[in-house]
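Loading example: each entry is read as two labelled lines plus one structure line.
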Amino acid sequence: MLSAEALRHVFGEGGGQVVALDGVSFNLTPGQTLAIFGPNGAGKTTLLKVLAGLIRPREGVVRVAGGRRAIGWIGHQSQLYEHLTVRENLHFWASLYGVPAARRGPRAALVLERLGMADRADQPVWSLSRGLAQRAAIAKALIHDPSVLLLDEPFTGLDLAAAAELRVLLGELRGGDTGGRVVVLTTHNVDEGVELATDVAFQRHGRFVHFAPRGGRGSAEIAAAYRRAVTDG
Amino acid sequence: MGELWAQAWAVARKDLVLEFRTRTALLSTVVFTVLVLTVFNFGRDPTAVATIDLAPSVLWVTFTFAAMLALNRAFQLELENGALEGLLASPLSPRGLYLGKLLANLAFVGVVQAIGLPVFVLFFDVPVGHVWLPLIGVIALATIGFVAVGTLFSAMVIRTRFAELLLPVLLLPFLLLPLTYAVQATARLLANRPLSELSGWLKLLAAYDIVFLGLASLLFPHTVDE
């Protein structure tokens, strides 16, 4: 459903090159959630941008069943227009993803209901709190019922309560409407993403220095492994 | 092809709804247009140069700078909350994005011109009653060329530090030709010359539109590529 083969990407040319991805490979099937942990500058955002088709890697291939239409992407920012209402934003993005006009209204209503935002549908985005704006961004990513969900630092800027709510929400969303989803999320905070993950990767200097199923490991165990792999390694 | 136009319409409609809701850019551009015409009106000596000789240049200089203001905001909308990334990650084709922006910019500049033209007629007292239809044709032809090139450059500069300064620097050299054609055609119209005298300038304007619409839609995907 989502595979990456030997991805390599560098920014810049000549002596000033910065390696952002260096031989990253993985294969994920529906129902799997990969949490990628890494310090700032490890190349996590670059990897998600490559997976989303925003950056063409210098080397390697990304395969997504269903192509771009199958991807829901949440970047560092909400990608929503402040002066449109939440519903208008969803209709706009649905139209770009080819959702037929007659289905956009019911689809937006369903997604907003699921995210607990039905009563906020006609509010302009500028009037939403950070937590609600993040939910609206998730609604935007889900409007076309993607089978692959890419989340770049989804907990950034949220207070503890909003982050906990978002974790519950993301756990519920793994199922998808018509079958399991593939979810890839990045964070630099191990505690934030561990509960959601079926698979865990530690990224450093553009490489996966650890990539394995989470198994029964808790956040303390994974945090210790992360420190060994990233901080000491 | 149907999907391309559907995507373009979605982008254009969204831009126009945003503009209608905030109205800041439209109001600023309209006020700018009226102010420039006012400055030209009071800053000229009608005894030195006949109004009819000066009026076409004044009209097109005003429209050019007003269009520049409009074009500056076209992609700034997409920087809000990183929406441009969302657009580029979506199935929206770069050509659909370009066409959508082009349509929205044409509508925006068209509204500014629709307000600016009567002010121009009022200030300069030029006889447009019998030539208003061909005049609108000249304005439309020239505006399509301006906006086709301007939309491309506005995407090109949007991620640079001095986008608002860079846009006119890059764009103005490309506007010299259509500006010349438009001034020549307008001068002949306002001087009551037969329409046959305009046809050469109109053909040149149409050729410019075709060439630069084609070039811009070919080059646009490279300007928004990360």
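Chain B is about 80% helix and 0% strand.
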